Amino acid sequence: xxxxxxxxERKKAATRQKIxxxxxxxxxxxxxxxxxxxxxAAEADVAVxxxxxxxASKEALVFEQDEDFEHRLAxxxxxxxxxxxxxxxxxxxxxALVRHCAADDASPVWRMIDASPALRKYEESMxxxxxxxxxxxxxxxxxxxxPTVCRAIARFTVDAYSLAREEAxxxxxxxxxxxxxxxxxxxxxxxxxx
Length: 194
Prior knowledge:
Helix 6 packs antiparallel against helix 10. The protein is an all-alpha fold. The protein starts with 6 loop residues before the first helix and ends with a helix. The chain is built from ten helices and no strands.
C-alpha cells in the first residue's frame, strides 16, 4: 500500500495545480501570446521563481499533464496484467487519453494549441519524448522485437492519439489505427521468428 502524500507534497501539488489552472484561464481569456509568465505568476499569487520550480517553460503550463501522460503510456506496458497482450493494453490507454483530450471542454485548448507555432512545436517535442519513453518500455519486454521496431510501434501509438483526437469519431479512429499497429506488431514478430 502506498503512503498518502504528506502535507508538504499536498501543498506543492496544490500550488502547481493553481498555477496551471490560472495560466490556462488567462491564456484562454487573453490569448496565449498576450500573456507572459509574470502575468501568470501575479494572477496565481506566486513568485516567478516558484512558477519555474513547477514548470520549465511557458509552453509547459499548457501541457501540465505531460508527465502523467508519459507515465501512463509506459505503465500501460509495464503494469498490464500478465495475460494481457501489449497492443490491446496500449489501445485501452490511448482510448482513455483520447476521451480525456477530446472532451467538449478541451476544444478551446486545442484550438489555442493549433493557433500557436510555439505550442505546436512543444507538443511535437513532447510526443517524440513520449514515444521514446514508450519504446524503452516496449523494448524491455521479454521477446521484444528489434529496438527499431519498438520505436516505430511507440511512435505509431503516440501518433494514434494525436490523429484520433482530430477526428469526428475519435474512438473509432483509435480502433482503425490500432488495427494497423497490431498488424505491424504481428508482422514484426513473424519476421523475427522466420
